[in-house]
Design brief:
This protein is of the alpha+beta class. 48% of the residues lie in helices and 21% in strands. It has helices spanning 2-29, 99-135; strands spanning 46-55, 60-70, 76-79, 91-94. The strands form two sheets. A two-stranded antiparallel ribbon has the order 1-2. A two-stranded antiparallel ribbon has the order 3-4. 12% of the residues are buried.
Length: 136
């Protein structure tokens, strides 16, 4: 039964990291999308918020994305005087997304996903070996 619990924990971690990668991909897709008018804000970076939760039936503490919140850091400014969203100085507000940070976050999420997948693979291997030993 403990092996099933470890698989449940790892599966919840995989789901949470997959959701995190989806949010990061959305951030990267909108990293250079400026506002269309001066009075509008551009895309705002999003961040997943994780939460541990105890499943009372199985007694397993799992993780999931509780919510996705907006990052309230300042927008970047880029000099583009001909853009329709340029202010009187010629600057356009750009999203507060740093592509390098997003790529590093994506790599971290990918590694965490792979680690959880490894837990599931190793648990399945242990279960198969146990069954083989019991057959003898």
């Amino acid at each position: 039964m403990e092996t099933m619990k470890s698989m449940l924990i790892a599966a919840s971690g995989m789901r949470a990291q997959a959701e995190r990668m989806r949010v990061i991909a959305e951030n990267l897709a909108n990293a250079n999308s400026a506002a269309s008018r001066v009075d509008e804000d551009p895309y705002r970076r999003q961040l997943p918020v994780f939460k541990n939760e105890l499943d009372r039936v199985t007694g397993v503490s799992t993780v999931h994305v509780k919510q996705v919140v907006k990052d309230n850091s300042d927008f970047r400014e880029q000099y583009m005087p001909g853009h329709p969203a340029a202010d009187e100085r010629g600057y356009v507000k750009m999203p507060n997304v740093n592509s390098l940070v997003e790529m590093m976050d994506m790599r971290e999420a990918q590694r965490a996903y792979e680690a959880n997948l490894s837990v599931i693979d190793n648990t399945r291997t242990m279960m198969a070996r146990t069954v083989d030993l019991l057959k003898r």
